[in-house]
């Protein structure tokens, strides 16, 4: 997926661009294309299944970062993923998910091995 010509991730688009693209998104939301796109009920990011009407419209390249409301830039997304992704690009969101997953796995690993004893203390079978 290519960004629009002249896309600069460090320059916020003007309010007119964002408003114009939101209007285009509203038209797409009412189209048969969008109904077909979300009909399988799968979130683009987490791949979980939802009722089609529970999926929201997400811009892969966010409007706030110069994205547009085109069929190539819009995907069905659950509300949780859409709220978490916010203004992130897909690769940035994937990095965030990977980081959160690693933190959860680390916490689970620590909890699984934590039996409340000092690991440096000798066990009952060891000599003191």
From TrEMBL:
Record carries keyword Transmembrane helix: no
Residue span of region Disordered: 1-25, 102-128
Keyword ATP-binding: no
Molecular-function annotations in GO: endonuclease activity
Domain of life, source organism: Bacteria
CDD domains cross-referenced by the UniProt entry: HNHc
Keywords recorded for this protein, A-Z: Endonuclease, Hydrolase, Nuclease
Biased composition (Basic and acidic residues): 14-25
Residue intervals of the HNH nuclease domain: 32-83
InterPro entries noted in UniProt: HNH_5, HNH_nuc, NA-targeting_endonuclease
Name the UniProt record assigns to this protein: HNH endonuclease
Species name: Leptonema illini
């Amino acid at each position: 997926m290519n960004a629009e010509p002249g896309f600069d991730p460090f320059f916020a688009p003007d309010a007119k661009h964002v408003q114009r693209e939101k209007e285009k998104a509203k038209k797409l939301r009412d189209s048969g294309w969008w109904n077909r796109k979300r009909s399988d009920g799968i979130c683009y990011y987490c791949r979980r299944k939802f009722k089609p009407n529970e999926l929201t419209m997400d811009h892969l390249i966010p409007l706030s970062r110069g994205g547009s409301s085109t069929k190539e830039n819009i995907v069905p997304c659950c509300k949780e993923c859409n709220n978490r992704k916010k203004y992130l690009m897909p690769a940035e969101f994937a990095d965030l998910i990977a980081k959160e997953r690693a933190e959860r796995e680390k916490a689970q690993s620590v909890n699984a091995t934590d039996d409340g004893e000092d690991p440096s203390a000798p066990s009952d079978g060891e000599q003191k």
